[in-house]
Every structure is written in structure tokens, then in C-alpha cells.
Request: fold
Amino acid sequence: MDKEFLHDLASKHEVLVPESLRPTDDGFEDKVLSQIGFPCIVKPTDSPAFVAKFRLKIFKCSNMDELRAALEKAAQASLQVIVQRIIPGFDDHVYTFDAYLDQHSKVTHWVSCQKLRQFPINFGASAFTRQKHEEELYRIGAPFLESIGYKGFAEIEFKKDAVTGKFYLIEINTRTTTLDPLLRKCGVNFPLLAYRELTGEAIGRHSVTHDTGYVFCFLFEDILSSRDYIRAKQLSRTQIFKSHFVKKAPAIWSMDDPLPAFHFLYMVLKKINRKLLRKRQIG
Reply:
């Protein structure tokens, strides 16, 4: 969960990670120019605390002045950060390796996926993600997780360098994620695996080594992200429209269990109502 520790751990096990610097490193600004370059990102070592404070996952900086300002914000919030090179490639170059490791730290189940759209765009969470078999992720991710003695569910996020084709480890989610409906549609129920192992049942082995055609869709966030992709001229309306003609694994909606969707809609309407009330009060 600590991004700085993970970076060091991955490097120790010869897993590629984006070039990173600590603000306390000697000759920091010179090294940023020679090793990282602009644009770059300022990334928290503790993501939950950073998101809670700034409602962002990272700060993107286009020049040294922006970088200094971002570091100052983090320092004022007493949050530790690292500065990292941006791996070239559009959002569809981001992949996940979702795996379960038993109590002997052996990968028993795994699925790989490819993000197509994120929210917020470019540096966000999955909004539209397809299951996509990528054997290379297993060759990198499985030995790494096993060698560090990991147990239970893990989701490693990788980014494929658009120039070199190499996969870089970005982060590890040490919990089940919003992609769970997609993973279940593809035949792997990770929470159930954990329950069965904890209750003494045999869990066997299984991997999804073909493309199932299923796509995860968090429709609410995908609508917002689609608007931003179009505004940024990164995707066209036609590209987004055509992408929806697939077998979907909805994030929230389910015909046989509609209450979560109704609750989510209720939460959204409450937020809209609060905003409208604030505007009236200001007006």
C-alpha cells in the first residue's frame, strides 16, 4: 500500500517501475530534468490520505514551477510523495493482473484486463474496462507476488510503454476492486475464493486464458469521463458510441439485485440537491 516501499520492493525483484525520485534526494531538481522530464506526476506514498485531502489521485506537473507548488501542497498537508515519470501511452495501455494467492503464497487463479476509459481521464479508476488475456502479465506478476510471500487477492496495475512495449508496475490494490462484477462474469469469484479457503474448502486452480468479450462499465462515471475525453480530443463520440456494443458487466445495476443501483441513484440525487441548495443560499 506504501507506494515508495512498493517501488523499492519491485526494483529489488527486477520488476520494471517508472523512474521515481524523492523530494529529499540530493540534486533533486537536476535529476528531475535529466531522469524524469516533464510532464511528470507527484504521487502519494499513501493514496487514501492523499485522495481524502485533495480529491485527486496525483498532481500532474508540466514544469518546475508547477512541481514546486505541488510539493509545497503535499508538504503543508504532511503527506509524503514521490515524483514519477509518466509512461507513454493512452489509457488503453493500462492493464490489470487480478490474482488470488493461497496460504502457501502460490497463484491459484488469475485474470488480466485492459482499461479503455478511466475516471478521471488519464489518471483515474476503471470506468470502462475489458477482460483481455495478456500472458506477459502473468509471467511478471505471478513470480513477483509469490516471491514476496503475498496471500489473498491482489490487483497489480501495469502500464505498457507505447514506445518500448515493456510493462511497468504502477501499483497494487490489496483489496477486491470495482472490477469484481467483470471478474465474476469471466468465471472467477475472488471474494468467494477467500471465503472457501478460510472455511477449509479446496479452491483448485483456474485462469482465464482467452478473451471472453465481457466489458466492465461503471455507466455514471463513464458518461462523465466520455465527456472529458471528447473535450480533450482524445476520443471521438463515434469511438465511444461503438464501444458500447459489447457484453457488459455493470458496476452497480443488476436485474436480480436492483437495490444497490437505486441506493446509488438516491446518493447522486442527494448530492445534486445539496449543490442546488448551496447555489440558492449564495444567490
